[in-house]
Structure formats: C-alpha cells, structure tokens
Amino acid sequence: MTDGTPHRPAGAHARHGGPAPHDTHERAETEPAVPEPAGPRALLDALWPPRVTRSQLLAAALLFALGLGLAIQVRAASSEETALRNARPEDLVRILSDLDDRTARLEDERARLEEQRTDLETSSDQAEEARRQTRERESQLGVLAGTVAAEGPGITLRIGDPRGAVEADMLLDAVQELRAAGAEAIQINDVRIVADTSFVDENGGVRIDGQPVGAPYLVSAIGRPQDLEPALNIPGGVVQSLENEGVGVIVDRPETVLVGALRSAEQPDYAQSSP
C-alpha cells in the first residue's frame, strides 16, 4: 500500500550523492603532488653558498688594483688642475716656458742621436768613429752612474732646517724635480745621487744610501740653470712646499757647479763583456 510518496530504489543516494569518505581518501592518495617551481630554487642553490675559484679571486684583485690606480690618478690630476687654476699669470707663463724648454731638450737629443747615426754611416773609418762614440758614451754613463766627477753649469739649493722638519720624501721630491728638468749629475752634501739611491727617515734624521745626512742640506745639480731653477719654483713645487713647513730655501746659480762625490763601480757577478 502506497502513501503517495515516489518509490526510490535502494542505493540511489549512494549512486547520485557525494562520494563515500573512503573513496575520497583513496583518490587523494593516487593523485600526484604538484611540484614546486624549480626555477627560483635552482637559482638559489646555484648562488648559495658562493663558489669562488682562484681565477675569480685573481680577477677581482686586478679589478680592485685598477680601480684604485684610476682613483689616485684622477685625484692627482684634480689637485694639479686646482693648483694651476689658482696660479698667477706669471707662474703660468713660467710653467709653459719650462714645458717648451723640455721639448727643446728632447729635440736636441734626437738631433744629436741622428747626427751620430749619420757620422757612423758616412765616416771613412767607421771602426774609429764607433770607438770615439763609445768612449763618449762611457763618459756620459760614468756621470750618470756616479763613478766619475762632473762639473759644469747648474744650480745649488741650500735647505736650512733648524726645526728638523725636512723628511726623506721632501729631499726625494727635490731630486725628482731636478731630474725631470734635465739635471745630469746631483749631489746632496757628500752623497752622490744616482738611479738607485735610497732615502730613509731614521731617528729624526735622513739617511741617503745608508749615510746620515743632516741640515743644512746642500743640493748641487748640473744642468741648464734656466731649466732647473723654474722647475723648483713652480706653484706647489719643492720650494713652496718647503717654505710652507717653515724651512728656509736659497737657490743660487754659480758659474760652475762641482759634483765630486763618487760611488764605487759595482762589478757584476755573472755578466762579462764579450770580445
């Protein structure tokens, strides 16, 4: 006997309703997990921890040295530009004159070398001409090496230092300025200055090539006085720097400058002159 309600077969709810709980669990176990993006993780694994090779360290050191050198060069150029900008017109004229003199010296040196080459090529006795030039060159190298005395035109620089303000680098600056201006022979007190001369501060004084040198410092330089003196007096140069330290400086142009301090000639251990 029916009550008017539609007859629903058994199990209809299981077929048309939601899945049974045990069916959901089994389906979750069988579905594969979605993997995380591999790109960021792989990039992080490649970058950390950092793996630095020896070549990379060497390249970094070279780049650092290059950057430091460029920074120092830019700073030096900036300071020189500032000094020139603040210089008086007469100082600028003197600097330009000094540059012109250096250019003239280089041109003279080139002309002299070309003349020597021409003499060798045109001389009737080329062997004798070669020997003459060799003796002349030997004498010049002896002056540069400090093994022979020299005299000629030049300047003297007297540096009074009652307070002990002069240091080794100040004397070295004076020597470098004189060399750049064409000085051929230099002597400080009784010490001959050559290419490998050392300047060291020691016990409140200065040692040059291991010899103690005290004030007053007398610098004798042979060369063209009209080139040497302006090189020392340029704005921000040797004389001005020393005077800023309260040091008295006197530059003189005697008729003849004598550089008589000598250095012993060093004999090579292995090299021998070939016949």
From TrEMBL:
Bias type Low complexity, positions: 7-21
Annotated Gene Ontology cellular components are: plasma membrane
What InterPro entries does the annotation carry?
DUF881
For region Disordered, the annotated ranges are 1-41, 113-138
**Basic and acidic residues bias: where?**
128-138
Q: Which Pfam families match?
A: DUF881
Task: Report the domain of life of the source organism.
Answer: Bacteria
Which family does the record assign?
A: Belongs to the UPF0749 family.
Name this polypeptide is given: DUF881 domain-containing protein
Organism of origin is: Streptomyces hainanensis
Q: Show the taxonomic lineage.
A: Bacteria, Bacillati, Actinomycetota, Actinomycetes, Kitasatosporales
